[in-house]
Input
Amino acid sequence: MTSVPLLEVRAVVKQFGGLRAVDRATFEVGEGSVTALIGPNGAGKTTLFHIVAGFLRADSGQVVYEGRSILGKPAHAVAAMRMVRTFQLTKTLEAMTVLDNMMLAGPNQPGEHLRNVLLRPLAARRRERALRARALEVLETFDLAAKASDYAGTLSGGQRKLLELGRALMVEPRLLLLDEPMAGINPTLGARLMDHIQRLRNEQGMTFLFVEHDMEVVMNHSDRVVVMAEGRVIASGEPHAVRRDPAVIDAYLGMQRDRAADG
Amino acid sequence: MSVLAVSFASFTHLEFWIGVGVLAAIYGIFSVGLQVNIGYTGIYNFGQVGFMAIGAYAMATLVVKARLSFWLALPLASGMAIVLGVALGLLGLRLRSHYFAIATISFAEITRYVIQDLKVTGGTAGMLGFETSWTRVATWMSARLHLAPKYYLAPLLIVSWIVFLCVVFGVRALLRTPWGRVLRGIREDEDAVRALGKNTLRFKVQSLALAAFLGSVAGYLLALDLNYLSPDAFTSDTTFIAYAMLVVAGLGSFVGILFGAVFIEVLLEGTRFINLPLADERVAALRFIIVGLVLILGMAFRPQGLLGKRDEMVLRD
Output
C-alpha cells in the first residue's frame, strides 16, 4: 500500500537540555492511511506530535504537509490547514456545553471577528445555523446527541474522548493526529472509537496518525506502523512485518528485560 | 452604647446617595471590563486602573493643554487606552497567566508614575478645568429637570447609569456571539482552542482592548465626578475594589455587576458614618476591613456570587 504522503517528517531533532527527546526522526504518513506511531514510554512520540502540530518548535529538520513545509507555523495556522490534533489528557472545555464545545470548533465563522459581529450579524447567524446542524449530526453518530446541552464537564472519561474526536471533526480535517485516543477508556469503547476511525477513513478518505504504546492494540486497527524508541524511528511498515522486526522486538523486550532487572 | 453610635443624619441626605450612585456606575463600568478579562477570557488583568487613568488624563490633557473639544477628546482618549491595551496585550499575553498578572500591575503603576512626573499632566499638582463642556450640559439638564442646586451631581448620575446599563447589556450581548464563545473556550483551555485553529492571542488582545476601552470610559466619567484629577485617584486599590464587586456579582455575570457595584459602593461609603473613637485614617482603614470581612463571608457562604453559576464554577475545578 504505497500512496502519496500527506505528511512527511524529515530528520526532526528536539533537544531538552541534555535529553534528545526526538533524534532525527523520519517517516511518512500516506494519504488515506491509518498510521500508528508506537513505542515505549519516553520514546518521543508526544514530543514529535507537538512539533508536527505546531505546539513545539523543532531544533532542526523538516515537516512537510500537503507538499509544503509547515515547520515553525503556529498551532492555529496548522489546524487551519485542516491538520487537527487531540490531546493525551482530554481537553474538554468543561464549563461549556457539549454543543458549544462542538460549535466552537467550526471553521469560517464570520461571527468570530469583532467587525463582523457588528457589520454582518446575519452572515454570522447563517453560519451558526449550519454549524449547529453539523454539530448535532456528528454528536448523533457518537451517541452524544442527548448530552448536547449538558456541560462537557459532566461527561464520563470515554464520552470526553468521543467529544474531543467529534470536536476535531468539526474542523473538517484532512489529517487527524490522535494522541493516545484509547488511554483511560474501557476496551469496548476503545474498539468503538477505532471503528469510527475506520469508517471516517473509508467513507471520507480522512487520514489518521495516532499515538499508542501498546503494540497489541494497533495490530488490528492500523495499516501502517511507525515505531519509535529513544527519540529515533527504528522501524516502519505494515503491522505484521514490524512486529517481527528484530529492532522492534529488542526495543520492547529490552524494556521487559530492564523491568525484570528492576524487579 | 454611644461608642458604636452611627450618625444617620447623612443617610437621609439625598445628595450623598447621588454621589454614591455615580461612583457605583463608574466602578461598575470599570468592573465590566475586568469581567470580560477574568470571567470570560481567563486573563488576569490587575492593571485596569491604568486604563482608567489614561482615559481620564488623556481627555483632560487634550481639553486643557491641546484646547481640543471635549467631545472630540473622549473618543481620542478611549482610542489611546485601546492602543495601550493592544500594546500591553501583544507584549504581555505571551507570558503565562500569573506573570501576565504581574505585568499588568506594573503597567498600572508605571502609568501612574509617568502621569505624576510629566509636566503636561500637571504632575502631583493635578489638573483642573476640563469639564466646562460637560457643565453646560449638566446645567441644561438640571434646568429641564428643575433640580435644586445641591443635586448638582444628578445629571452625571443619569448619564453614568445610562452608560453603565448600555455597557452591561451591550457587552453581555457581545459575549453571546461566536466571538464570545471563543473567549470562553480560551478561559477553559487555551491549547484546546489553538488546536482547533483559532489564533488565541488575537482574541486575548481584543479582550484586553475591550477592557481598556471600558476603563477609559470609567476614567473620564470619574474625571467629571471629581472635577479635579490627581494621580492619587488611580492607585491599584481601585482595581482590587472592582474585583470585590466581581466577587459579589459572580464570576461571569454581567447583570450581577449592577448589584455588586452598588453593594460595594454603599458598603464603602456607608461605613464612613460609623462613629468610633478613632482617628480618621483609622476609620478609613476600618472600612476596608469591613469590606474584606463581607468578601470572606460571601466566599464562604455563596462562593459563586449573587448571580454566578455554581455549576460552571464547580466543573472548572
